[in-house]
Prior knowledge:
The protein has about 130 residues and is mainly alpha-helical.
Amino acid sequence: AGALDAALVMHLARVYGLPLTQREAGGLIATICAQLVALMGAIWGVHLVASALKGLSAGMSTVLTATAQGALAWYATLIVGQAADRYLAAGKSWGELGAKRVVSDIVESLDRDSILREARSEILKRLRTTESNA
């Protein structure tokens, strides 16, 4: 996910015609992720639960837990993309309110349920396609 986020940020910088080194992109992602500590806690919680379920169910819960993990990663990447977009659109600036407020505003503006439903649907579709091709 980190490599995809970095590629996303680098692409957005090119869209805005702003020079951005890989180091700057990494710093930007680190700043955004620092503001998403609560979300990362949820992701780590899902990973822990997923590992426990896999062990208890002899791997039968893999699709369920993979879907949950994928949906949370989808959500986090969406937030990283929108935050980076706002930062770059403002000429590589968080503005007067700072990164914390920008990320907070993005999180508050999102309809989490519909985003997670869309992510879940897309992930399950891809899993089914992968299984049918195997």
